Structures are given as structure tokens and as C-alpha cells.
Amino acid sequence: MSGSLVDVAFAHTAWATLQVIDACLDLSIEQLRTNVLGTRGPIIETLRHIVTGDAQDLFILTGDPTFDVDFEDLSLPELRVAMEGIGAGWSSFISSPIDPDAMVREVDSTDGYERTAPVAFRLVGTLQHGTDHRSQICTALTSLGIEPPAVDVMSYGVDMHRVMEKMPGG
User: Quick one: pLDDT band at residue 110, thresholds 50, 70, 90?
Assistant: First the structure.
């Protein structure tokens, strides 16, 4: 792995979302409908929201219609495939020159809401959005008695063989 700090940040966010999806693949329909007070909503809806949000942010930044998709009805295996494609899309976008101060305008087609913000804010918002909701899903998994996946950046580093850990005396 080489590249910029932003490359690592977006590779981590795609990896973390895939880890959470994988942790949920064996859940029952009832478990996927788990809704914990203080979170966005049921696990399955929150996963769909994360993937849709990532795709929409990528569409807003690139204009690529591949990412102008609503993933609100996909199954977990379908969400996983979509997230792999979105991760590749982020990698491609991040590898091109980016002006962090360039202004990006979005218009919500459902209600006309408009927002204009610098690219840097859009990128940071994407990262924060996924982190927030993955944490909520991990809370829901814990409420079910299921150990949530480790999705922190150091776990990502270990998985990518970029972070080495050693216990004292080991």
C-alpha cells in the first residue's frame, strides 16, 4: 500500500464497511431488523444507508452515473458487491488530482434541497458518515450478544500487513 493519507482513509472506510457487512451475513431476518435506541435504525437499513451514502457522495463528486444508484432494496451479498465497486470508485477518484477547495454543488432530486461545499468537506463528511453508522451497527450487534468486527484503522493496518503488533514478552 502506498499513496496519500486520503488513499488510506478511503481504503479503510471501504474495508470497514465490508467487515461489518460480512459480520451480518449470517444474521436472521429478525436480527437484521434489530433497532437499538439511539442508532439510525435497523441493522439492514443502516447498512443500505451507508452504501447508498458512499455511492451518492461519489456520484456528486464525479458525476459518474454508475454511482447514482439507490441501494435501499439490496440484500447483504448484493450490498457487499456494490461496496466493493464503490471502494474501487473511491480509489480511482482519490488517485486523480483533487483541489480540496473546489466547490461541489448537490441538489436533492426529491425535494430540491441544495448544498454547495468544498471537496475537502465532502470527503471528510463521507468518512465521518460511514464511521458513525458502522459504530451504530456494532452497538446493535453487541445488543444481540454478537461480537462486532474490529473495524478501527489499526485493525485495518494489521489486516493489510502494514501494522505489526507484538504483545509484551511475545
Answer: confident
Task: Give the mean pLDDT of the chain.
Answer: 94
Grid coordinates belonging to 106: 448537490
Task: Determine the average pLDDT of the residues in 87-105.
Answer: 95
Instruction: Note whether 160 and 8 are within 8 A (CB).
Output: no
- Three-state secondary structure readout of the chain: CCCCHHHHHHHHHHHHHHHHHHHHCCCCHHHHCCCCCCCCCCHHHHHHHHHHHHHHHHHHHHCCHHHCCCCCCCCHHHHHHHHHHHHHHHHHHHHCCCCCCCEEEEECCCCCCEEEEEHHHHHHHHHHHHHHHHHHHHHHHHHCCCCCCCCCHHHHHHHCCCCCCCCCCC
Distance CA(152)–CA(133), nearest Å, equals: 13
Q: Tell me how far apart the alpha carbons of residues 83 and 91 are, in angstroms, rounded to a whole number.
A: 12
In whole angstroms, give the CA distance from residue 168 to residue 17. Answer: 31
**14-25 mean pLDDT:** 98
